[in-house]
Amino acid sequence: MKGKQAAVALAAIMGFGTVAALGACGGGGSGEIDFWYSTSIADGRIISELIETYNNGQGIEDGVKVTGENRGQIDRTDFMVDSPNVVMLGDENFKQFAVEDYYLDLTQYYAEMPGNYNEAEIPTSFTRAFRIDTKDSANGKRMAGEGAAIQGIPFGVDPMIHYYSKSVFEDAGIKIISCEEKELASKYPGLQPHGYAEYTAENGAKPPVEGATVSENLAGELVYKVFNNLIPMNWEEYRYLSKCFTAAYNETSPTAYGSAMHHWFSIGWSVGGDCVGYDGEKYTFTALDDSANYLVTAADGVTVNGRRYAAGEVVRYEDKVKQSDIATMSGLHVLPSQKAAMQEFINLTVPQEKTGGMETTGYGVSTGINEGVDALWSASNRVAMVSGRVEQTTTLEVAYKGQYDITVPAQWREYQGGSVYYKGEETFANEYLKVIGKQYGGTVYTGELDKDAVSGVPFVGRQSGYGEFSALIIPVNSDSSNYEAAWKFIRWAASEEGQRIFMKTGNVPNQSALALSDEYASLGGERNYRAAAVAAQGAEIGDWAYFNNGAWVDKWSGNFNQALRLGYSTPEKFMQNFAGIANGDIGKVSIVMNGRW
Fold this sequence. Notes:
Blueprint lengths: L1 H12 L4 H9 L5 E6 L3 H16 L1 H5 L2 E6 L6 H4 L5 E5 H8 L8 H6 L11 H5 L13 E4 L7 E13 H6 L2 E4 L3 H7 L8 E5 L13 E3 L5 E7 L6 H10 L12 E4 L4 H6 L5 E3 L4 E3 L7 E4 L5 E3 L2 E3 L7 H6 L9 E4 L2 H12 L33 E7 L3 H7 L4 E4 L12 E3 L8 E3 L5 E2 L2 E2 L20 E9 L9 H11 L2 H7 L9 H4 L2 H5 L6 H9 L1 E2 L10 H12 L8 H16 L4 E4 L3
Parallel strand pairs: 1-2, 1-3, 4-25, 6-9, 10-17, 23-24
Antiparallel strand pairs: 3-23, 5-17, 5-18, 5-23, 7-9, 8-9, 11-12, 13-16, 14-15, 19-20, 21-22
Helix pairs in contact: 1-2, 21-22
């Protein structure tokens, strides 16, 4: 290993390009490379098809032949000596091997011989997930993310989505449509941009969309119910719809709970929060940080702490804490804090009444017990909606085929006049979704998105959620004479041609145009793969992949899920018990992520 790393370093010192230098040192190589991956048997067949297509097509022109092997788990020993030429690796393990210098820096390969692979055609979150410098900076930290060295090429993502029970929704009188927000006005002029909305059916009001029928809502009103599986529900819509399908609030509900959502990412990230924040010098555990977040609404953008933001972007943690006058700056709209976002997430599973030693109460509309996708149909804790990943359609196809579909994760969205009203005391038990077309306080509720009065920028947060990303890397300890051959295969596999085959696994391809195409959507059959593709465009790595490994998360996540989210602890106690531990761990990390916080 050290000899091959030295060759790279020597080439740089002598002023030669890495690609040219390695090609000269390698003596041409055999052009035969081995590719190791870890996947299911079914997905392995698709990767075999990808390899065969390359070998019989682009591989002939490249002078490269690939042999594939499904290895199961890829671990450290695979990188230590006589490594394969190409490895497919997940985001969870990527950085721990990167800091041990097991990967070849691909930056110059991409610069000098990109082939048909182009980072500009891929979401930034995909590419920065596998960028990390090859050396520590002066402060002993290694930069990862935007601007860092390319050590992995994104191969695809399995994004966070919400599954919902079509049969449960339809039996409740909900009309389901699929229409992206940008096309809504032309295709469905009677609808507003909501994930879930109710339209008045009183006084002879006509249905807002063909096929919508009159039914009674939770408040006892006659309405038309419309669910759009390509527009995110906002926080209020998600909790209200969950309430409708929770037996404790609706005795006719066919499900015990309305939802099951194990991961907080789509809620916290939507407003710019996270469980860590970087202030330019150190990381802090910010899972319950109570400082406001900010949405840029100035049409021409705003500069915060020296960084330029475009309209519609959310200000990063580092910039908001360093800009001392941010609260008085123009061109910004205040968003909820990470604490408010986390409390919203916690409230979903905390029961509405204190029992058995509980210390807090919540909405009680989401189960914290069975949070697998089988909660959609299992006899106990059956739910109407559950968060998961696209990969889990395999499970659903076996037991719940044809009865479920996919929608995008929830998002912070603000509507004119708000989203809810109360009958009596302002408690969740008395909270109801405003009905479009009805009057509240003498004003007809239109359901329109709220916007900045000057710029017209809508008040919406980031559309995001976690994803499980995979990458293709070249182990530095593989045969250096075949580095270039390995790169040629990687750039093809990550290009549109290779991704067109790989996406048959269900993974969303890295190419945005391909992901959002009818071709990818059609792979889902009756399943809404378009929602998966939309969700993937804003997906990010989870907290388990931020640093060298996810061990720092393990020390607090158990209490978070088993005590705080069930009401047996309070946010204040949680921070008292775990903030110091988390801060101690992230204070020792050797990685600084650029572009996230």
